[in-house]
Amino acid sequence: MTRPLLYFAHGWSYDQSFWQPVIKNLAEFSCHYEEAGYFGASPSCKLPQSPYIAIGHSAGVMNLLKRDLSRCVGLISFNGFARFSSDISYPEGITARVLERMMTKLSQNPEDVISSFRRLCGEDPPALPAHFNQERLIAGLQHLIDEDARLSLLGWDKLLVNIVGSTDPLLPSQKGLQHPCSLQEIWQGGHLLPQTHSTRAARLIRDIANDL
């Protein structure tokens, strides 16, 4: 049986290179990437035309859930969530004013905003890119305020694997994808599990792909 392709989606403040520690352990697979274009690269979000497993990190999971995943045979979430900002129905989210302050600061000092956020996520010292696309970074934060993929998650009827970090500092990620049929694992770690646990993440992806 032909192996499914792998499609990787990164979160806010990162790019497709975020997945390289995992990808280097998956040489036998055909890997495809979403690129948000936060740091000068051209945005790209074309989904594969053949059956694939979608693998997302953080906001990348929410973005995936809002897309047409008809050819997707399974979703693996690392530190993911279906909604990020708080409202009456989701009080555990991050308040919009926090993200709005980040948006204001991005237009003045993007290096400081990205550095602070990556440190919060557990990257210390943060490896900052050479170029910043402030417009796309700000749009990404607005997306975190506005987007809600909980209905899409509720209707999900395919394989769903939910990996959360025991010490993830972002509460929406710590709660993960709240779905009754998800296969959930709690790993000892923070918000960057695909990087801090890259070998384990690759092994999980390989095992799932080989079982499908």
UniProtKB/TrEMBL annotation:
SUPFAM superfamilies in the record: alpha/beta-Hydrolases (SSF53474)
InterPro entries the record matches: AB_hydrolase_fold
Protein name: Biotin synthase
Higher taxonomy: Bacteria, Pseudomonadati, Pseudomonadota, Alphaproteobacteria, Acetobacterales
